[in-house]
Amino acid sequence: MVSASKKTLTVLFADISESTRLYETLGDLKAKEILSGFMEMMSVVIVKNKGIIVKTIGDEIMSTFETADQAAAAAIGMQEEVAFANCRETDPVTLRIGFHYGEVIIDGNDVFGDTVNIAARMVSQAKANQIITNGDTLKAIALVAAGDIRYVDQTRIKGKQKVMKLYELIWGEPDEMTMIGTTSSPEPLEDVLFTSELMLSYKDQTVKMDEKSPGITIGRLPSCDLVVTDRRVSRLHARIEFRRNKFVLIDQSTNGTYISKLDAKPTVIRRDELVLNGEGFLSLGRRFDKPDKGNPIRYACREK
Description:
This protein is an alpha+beta fold.
């Protein structure tokens, strides 16, 4: 009998978000076939980045990596592969990924300990299409492929006195490399009047968001809440979240998002965030004064 041993590893959980919906709408056999394809795709990315698959739990994969860099690359790779596959699928899915770097107990083919528990907490904090980790893990990462880092929130881990800061690994377009050391802390969001409803209109699409909404995604992907099919629009171009009574636009694209408020000069954000208030227009990847500016998205923040 081999005794348990300790080792420093990165533990990663990747969870398919829409599995229940697929089983309900497509039936067991078809849903299982689709999900199995995505699970196999994710497994290939894990192994390609020198990861070891520990086990699958339903539609979730638990894996380990020697380094946090490998885990970060695998996380981004899985999100990109699933996003690309969704372009061909009539029933798209999304991933939630979380990972943590630290000491684990290895017992046979399984791993245990605080690091596993914290990694599981990270994936539980992630929303669809998100990759969540923490400040301690970021210190172990030298380079992040195709992404950037955004502070999300802080949380308490059971049995730990210290509050843990949560960060999102932003992914969007491939072929980009960003050094974490050059990433600055986000500026505090400006104070605005309380708004409780946001309306977005684009061509024949209308999306409403309020304080109960989980968030809105905008981009080329068919799975986005607002789909904009333009060559300068990223697959997952931007998100809008409701935080502290504010609607926050988060750009995670290559070409940026241009904002024109009705009472202010146009501005642009790229890999940054901005509080939306009042009324105005959003243009994805194109300046408003360009001849080929296309159809901007109209937004309106209102109190109910």
